[in-house]
Amino acid sequence: MLSQLLETLHKISAAFQRGRQFITHDIWRIGRPGEKVPSGLIIKQIRAAILLVRGLMEETLLLRASALTFATLLFLVPFLALMFYFIQTFNLGDQIYEKMDERLSKAVVALRHIGDTEEEGEEETKRQEELDELFPVADENADDNTAVLGVHPENFSGSDEQLKRHLITTLFPILAEKDGITNDPLYQNPVKYLVSFADEAARSPRALGVSGLLFILTTVFGFMRNVEYTFNRIWGVSRQRNPLRVIGHYMLLTFMLPFVAAFIMGISAALENSYVLEILGPAALLLRSAQFLVLSLSFTLVYFFVPNTKVQFRYALIGGLVAASLYMLNSWIYIKFQYGLINYTNFFFAFALFPVLLMYIYFSWLLLLFGALVSFAYQNEKTFALERLAAETTTAYKESLAVRTMLELSFRFKNSLEPLQIKEAAELWNVPTRLLQETLDILKDNRMVIATDSIPSSFHLARSAHSISVLEVVNAIRNTGRDPSLLREEADYKVVYEGLDTADPQVLTQSIQSLSDQILDKKDFSAGGSSAIP
Q1: CB within 8 Å of 73: residues ≥ 6 apart
Q2: Would the pLDDT of 404 be above 70?
Q3: Are 203 and 155 within 8 A, CB to CB?
Q4: For 377-389, what is each residue's pLDDT tens digit?
């Protein structure tokens, strides 16, 4: 019995060791340049999962999410004020939001009556009745429920206010509850105050003067820059965009976003219409996920465009789907948690509202960054497997990679081939992507290669390959960084250090004892004893 138990424990231990060997070594095995990297659906998922765990532990996502949460509080009111200003100024509620909702709903009604056998007049009457039910004439004496958001619709169209409400309830699902969380007067959702401030600023000529607009744009641009920097850190991109190009992109994004939001919200409103869903029948099951699809598409576009590198759309989509799913779960938990707060004392209930909002924003950013990490892990699971060893790379490996890179660039230039791209070369040579990026940055700093302004960057020779020696390439790698002291300037040892820099055979082939006799025997150590150390 004891022998069987020991044998079972031995088998379990052996299986554990095999699993550990597979996870820590076999799954990451990268062979010689050109050798096929082990791949497969299961291997890819395991690699991506390991990289995600490693990224969560080492990429300081928690700290970055905290910083973005604070930045959001500074950014939210100016951003909403700018959005509301564009909605009101250009009447986006009537021009885009309402028209998209109406046209899509009419298209659904028309599709329903394709093939009907009624007379043309009866068919038209039936269509009009359904459209009247879809778009009833508003009652001028009816109360506008947009006041619950702190938005005052005195001077603006109802469509604009509906668009504002739809936008806010998409960002903060807690406000989508028609009956509210509670009628307790102590319950004052902090989001209402923020939205109220933004609406007042959008309607005030003084708030949106030259100085006010400059402040809003500075706040919005600074926030966007912070988000871009965070995404670049996740992707390991050190090269920033050209400042003029950044301003142009941010300006375009800022002015286009209200129009795009109105367009998307109009489609979403039509797809969420209960009458449209009833007409579509079973097909409505797909449209009930309209909010999820909008969120997934939004996150996908963020992961695709924001990083200053080329992100493949399919991997951005994977990250977008994961982030959207977790974001909707976070929103559901946020709503349920506020319902749960009602059971506590009035003081604690009122006190906890703002911290709960901060927690919601914090977890939203954490999930958004996690989605970016998912995209990065899936796109780079082959070459990024080596990144865990990149910090321990030998100097000889770095020198070999630099020489290999220069030889490749020379060959491409001589044969009029395309410039070198990092991802392509890293996968072809089986080398870490980030290490190759660092090597090319060093060679660029030493004026041996230049990079194009395209995304992703391409690299080619900065000068003739005949004027670049192998020793110059090696010394560029060796001399990267800063000398902490003047050790290499010591006169007595200068001949040795110069011999190392010039690869002088007379220095490199000598024994240590021979060099010691030549240099140290000339010094007078009588005052300091027998030691050569001063």
Answers
A1: 358, 361
A2: yes
A3: yes
A4: 788 776 665 666 6
**Nearest in space to 134 (alpha carbons), one of 107, 170, 163, 153:** 107
Residue with the larger pLDDT of the pair 56 and 184: 56
Architecture of domain 387-478: Orthogonal Bundle (1.10)
Residue 523 region by backbone torsions, left for phi larger than 0, else alpha for psi between -120 and 50, else beta: beta
77 CB-contact burial (10 Å; exposed 0-12 / middle 13-18 / buried 19+): buried
Sequence-distant (6+) residues with CB within 8 A of 166 are 97, 265, 268, 269
Owner of token pair 């973005």: 68
70: helix, coil or strand?
helix
What the block records as the tokens of 34 is 């050109």
Which residue do the tokens 């209930």 mark? 349
Give the span between the Cα atoms of 375 and 236, in whole angstroms: 13
Query: Dihedral (C-alpha) 341, 346, 349, 350: value to the nearest 10 degrees?
Result: 150
Residue 283 corresponds to which amino acid? A
Q: What tens digit of pLDDT does each residue of 40-79 get? A: 666 667 767 776 777 676 657 888 889 899 888 888 888 8
User: What's 288-324 look like in SS3?
Assistant: CCHHHHHHHHHHHHHHHHCCCCCCCHHHHHHHHHHHH
Residue-level length of the chain: 534
This prediction's pTM: 0.64
Q: Domain map of the chain by residue range? A: 2-58, 61-136+145-379, 387-478, 488-534
SS3 473: helix
Asked if 328 and 292 touch (Cβ cutoff 8 Å), the reply is yes
